[in-house]
Design brief:
Helix content is 40%, strand content 20%. The protein is an alpha/beta fold. A hairpin with a 2-residue loop joins strand 13 and strand 14. The longest helix has 22 residues.
Length: 338
Amino acid sequence: MKQETFRKRKPKIVVIGGGTGLPVILKSLKEKDADITAIVTVADDGGSSGVLRRSFNAVPPGDLRNVLTALSEIPELQREIFQYRFRSDDQSLSGHTIGNLIISAMADMRGNIYEAIQLLAKMMHVKGHVYPAAEEPLNLHARYMDGTTQCGESQIPKKGKMIDVVSVTCVEEERPVQASRKVVSAIMNADMVVLGPGSLFTSILPNIMIPAIGKALIETEGKVVYISNIMTQLGETEGLNDADHVKVLHKHLGTKFVDIALTNIGDVPQDYIEQEENEEYLLQVEHDFKGLKEEVPMIISDDFLLLTGNKVYHNGEKVAEEIFRTAFNSQRKMKEYL
């Protein structure tokens, strides 16, 4: 009887990151019978998010907006309105999305970003939970291999140097960075914690460099999965293969905490690599099976490519299926062990 009850419980899957890759995976995971929690970076300082961050001295809303939209079950038209971006010639509203303005206004009304996001999640019929990694904007700092430093998520890749390590600090005061409420408990109670996909140094690491989140990733009994990027990124990961990505994660927390690496082995067509519109992305990330085996106990490799228009994405449906199956099997094995 206990075994049957257990099998009916939804696997608890926590996804951590930011950028454009995270919503792709979340949108597909939403269709699975899983209890989803998204933990979203708050170190962005570029574009519309950066302007609103400086104007309101508040958490940048862009990544949170995309995650809310991905997990929302409101009609398509309402999602399109939430994601609508004003044209560049609209003067004071130039480049802003309606969703960014709504999130900033709601945070101002409620007095904090956490309550604002929870209220919006209810209004948007979000399937799952969405938490900012911290409840205040953070500064991202990078030290390059040559010993020089740079502050600012949007500025770090522009130096064109190899990054050694990154860290985060509070914007206004010199005090320890605190994780947002419920973030640590979500990680500790998860069956699986997924990192990425997303920019390694500027979307994933800003979250895990929050001390309480890093500690929880090391201590959780849930399996930690890293989804390797498909393409290298200018100013971030040139010359790094998939094993190198995992090594960077382990270096930052000082221990091997990733249990599973999910990596693409499908070949990206050359004409996609040469697209000028994708100049931020340089070459396909090479697969180093031997190197990965030295870093993680388990590797999931397959053709995870989705080629749309002139851009390369992860096939969210295939990735979500692998994540869900592995989380469910891990959950079942834990029950059998107990």
